């Protein structure tokens, strides 16, 4: 039994393999959080279920610890739900009415119904338990059981209370275009630290994930509480520390400029917010999140293919001849999926025109796409293609025909970003246009892979023809419609894999990952810059989901020169891709690269299905090292990168992780064998030298 209810004490306990999450119904009928940490007997928490105050100015301090706080009465911290009633009242008084423990898709789920004292509104709080990963998936459903509209002004998914710590350190990521997933941390002082997106998509400036520890947790040890939100629209995670040293982290759809009208009999369901606790440090946190994505979130268990992408090779200058030549060379490398990026459609000769006109450009492809697809298939590869369905260039037939199809305010200009506007996909005719051209594209051609891009943020978020008083629904409606389109396409074309991209990594979250097989974390393909992007990514998201391309020796991004080996090693840590202009590569370079692709295919099961351990991070001694171990711990691969050597300064010994202590292991490239415990405690030496050196060690258990 993972979910228990103690009738006598009115206490709920969610027991996972190694953790307990405990809360109770207090004397006022409210759900009060009691404990989250290593496994415990729920009865031991009974004395915590009490109300307390500090002064008449600070009454009911326990309300700060509400499982889901309803704005009204004495709630002054970040609320989880705030509404306006038809009669002008704006206050909630929700009491626990009943609970159910159900089984859904093999998982136990607790649903607690709270009911307002005076108004016909219910909140159903869900807790789905993933015992083997010590995770709880929370969400809330608001149900209007009355006959009047209710305005939902703020509807969060969940609030996570962190147990008492002397200090609370928040870890999160920040970033920008071409510099996504940069790790940051800060000790929380009283007040709020808000991580959010207001840009209409998940965003690269922040990602909907958090971790809290006492400031001393490491990769391998220490208590870490964490959570990740499944939402690809505007979101908000608020880490709040009160004057009474309590910390709660509340997250969900961003309430900024947002509102939802809940009609009579209607319900609104929030995105899910998965949370977990581990005593095993940040490494264990990541491995649990990765496994959660593999087992419960992403749509397919298939291995991800080695792909080629034409973007950095040909940009908009795409044509059948060049692409066929690239395909021939890609096949020689051992590529399994050939992807044509932007530039194949309409008048898309640059980023100023063509978006929206999803028909093949006949000048570039006189015989249509079919000729290239045939060629790619004959070469033994699958074919993939880039689309950006939500956008339109003003210089396009689509925009000339339907200038009202874009988000805009009638009295304002239409801000162009990358020379494009954003389609109001919530309009039924726009949604069907997208579904129709995608359906045509995917049924007319044998396409195995779609890279779905979105290259701008939302501005002037006006929805023409949508009721005036419901205009603020735009942010939620865009995300909902996007999910509906992806769900529909996946249903219609189950064999097609999808990559989520938004000018690099601006749309990566657990929401879109229900439909996307892989992600494009960044347009920055510099192999060194990628290390920190990939490190931040790995805190939350699984290696298999991370597409990484090998590009030119001199990075087009920042002019840094790196060796072929370094570039391959950096890109082999996720789903390997090649993005170079192979038409300019020598035969030697192609042959050498084919060797790396072969190696990648051999280690792919480790990288794409194994456990990942971050052994070292560049921030310390200039060495980054990541290890992948298979489930049986019989095989492992280690990647290590040296930024720049300083004479006489010793390099760290790499203490491996996840091996069987008493088994013997051998490093492929070196003579001799060592016990697992020697490798994990003494560590292995790193023969890295000079600048930007790298190695990949394959290590196997000896029979
Ligand atoms: C975005 C993507 C790139 C590429 C271009 C094409 O920037 O992130 O990978 O597809 O668009 O215009």
Structural summary, described in words:
This protein has 703 residues and is α+β, with helices and mostly antiparallel strands. The chain is 19% helix and 30% strand. It has eleven helices and 36 strands. Strands 6, 7, 8, 9, 11, 12, 14, 15, 19 and 20 form a ten-stranded antiparallel sheet that branches. It has an eight-stranded parallel sheet with strand order 28-27-26-23-22-21-30-29. Strand 11 (169-174) and strand 12 form a beta hairpin. The longest helix is centred in the C-terminal third of the chain and has 23 residues, at 587-609. It starts with a strand and ends with a strand. The model has no long low-confidence stretch (mean pLDDT 97). The structure holds alpha-D-galactopyranose. Residues 311, 341-342, 386, 453, 455, 501, 503-504, 520, 523 line the site of alpha-D-galactopyranose.
């Amino acid at each position: 039994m993972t979910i228990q209810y103690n009738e006598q004490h009115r206490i709920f306990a969610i027991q996972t393999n190694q953790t307990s999450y405990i809360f109770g119904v207090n004397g006022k009928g409210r759900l009060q959080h009691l404990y989250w940490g290593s496994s415990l007997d729920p009865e031991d928490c009974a004395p915590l279920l009490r109300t307390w105050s500090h002064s008449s100015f600070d009454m009911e301090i326990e309300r700060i610890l509400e499982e889901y706080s309803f704005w009204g009465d004495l709630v002054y911290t970040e609320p989880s739900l705030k509404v306006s009633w038809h009669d002008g009242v704006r206050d909630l008084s929700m009491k626990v009415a009943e609970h159910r423990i159900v089984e859904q898709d093999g998982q136990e789920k607790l649903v607690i119904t709270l009911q307002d004292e005076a108004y016909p509104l219910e909140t159903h709080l869900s807790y789905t338990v993933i015992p083997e990963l010590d995770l709880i998936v929370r969400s809330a459903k608001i149900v209007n059981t009355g006959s009047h509209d209710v305005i939902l002004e703020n509807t969060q998914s969940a609030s996570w209370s962190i147990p008492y710590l002397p200090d609370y350190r928040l870890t999160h990521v920040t970033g920008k275009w071409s510099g996504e997933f940069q790790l940051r941390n800060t000790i929380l002082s009283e007040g709020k630290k808000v991580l959010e997106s207001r840009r209409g998509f998940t965003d690269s400036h922040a990602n909907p994930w958090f971790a809290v520890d006492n400031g001393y947790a490491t990769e391998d040890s220490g208590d870490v509480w964490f959570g990740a939100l499944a939402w690809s629209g505007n979101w908000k995670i608020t880490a709040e520390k009160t004057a009474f040293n309590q910390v709660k982290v509340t997250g969900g759809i961003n309430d900024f400029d947002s509102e939802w009208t809940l009609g009579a009999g209607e319900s609104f369901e929030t995105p899910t917010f998965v949370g977990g606790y581990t005593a095993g440090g940040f490494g264990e946190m990541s491995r649990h999140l990765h496994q959660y994505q593999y087992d419960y979130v992403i749509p397919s268990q298939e291995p991800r293919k080695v792909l080629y992408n034409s973007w950095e090779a040909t940009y908009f200058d795409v044509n059948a001849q060049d692409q066929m030549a690239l395909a021939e060379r890609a096949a020689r490398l051992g590529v399994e999926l050939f992807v044509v990026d932007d530039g194949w459609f309409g008048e898309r000769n640059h980023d100023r025109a063509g978006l929206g006109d999803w028909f093949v450009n006949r000048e570039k492809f006189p015989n249509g796409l079919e000729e290239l697809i045939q060629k790619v298939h004959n070469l033994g590869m699958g074919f993939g293609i880039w689309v950006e369905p939500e956008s339109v260039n003003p210089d396009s037939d689509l925009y000339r025909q339907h200038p009202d199809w874009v988000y805009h305010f009638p009295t304002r200009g239409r801000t162009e970003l990358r020379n494009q506007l954003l389609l109001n996909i919530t309009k039924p005719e726009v949604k069907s246009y997208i579904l129709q051209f995608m359906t045509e594209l995917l049924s007319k051609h044998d396409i195995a892979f779609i890279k779905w891009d979105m290259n701008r943020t939302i501005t002037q978020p006006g929805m023409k023809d949508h009721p005036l008083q419901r205009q603020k629904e735009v942010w939620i409606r865009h995300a909902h419609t996007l999910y509906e389109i992806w769900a529909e396409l996946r249903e219609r074309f189950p064999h097609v894999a999808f990559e989520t991209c938004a000018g690099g990594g601006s749309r990566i979250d657990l929401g879109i990952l229900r439909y996307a097989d892989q992600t494009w974390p960044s347009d920055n393909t510099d192999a060194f810059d990628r290390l920190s992007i990939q490190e931040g990514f790995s805190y939350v998201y699984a290696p298999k989901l991370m597409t990484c391309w090998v590009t030119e020796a001199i990075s087009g991004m920042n002019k840094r020169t790196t060796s072929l080996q370094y570039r391959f090693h950096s890109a082999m840590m996720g789903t390997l891709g090649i993005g170079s202009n192979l038409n300019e590569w020598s035969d030697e370079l192609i042959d050498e690269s084919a060797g790396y692709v072969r190696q990648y295919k051999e280690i792919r099961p480790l990288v794409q299905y194994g456990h990942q351990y971050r052994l070292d991070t560049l921030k310390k001694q200039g060495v980054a090292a990541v290890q992948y171990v298979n489930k049986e711990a019989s095989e492992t691969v280690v990647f290590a990168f040296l930024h720049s050597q300083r004479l006489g300064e010793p390099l760290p010994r790499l203490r491996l992780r996840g091996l069987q202590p008493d088994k013997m292991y051998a490093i492929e490239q070196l003579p001799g064998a060592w016990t697992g415990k020697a490798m994990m405690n003494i560590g292995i030496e790193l023969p890295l030298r000079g600048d930007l050196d790298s190695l990949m060690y394959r290590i196997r258990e000896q029979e």
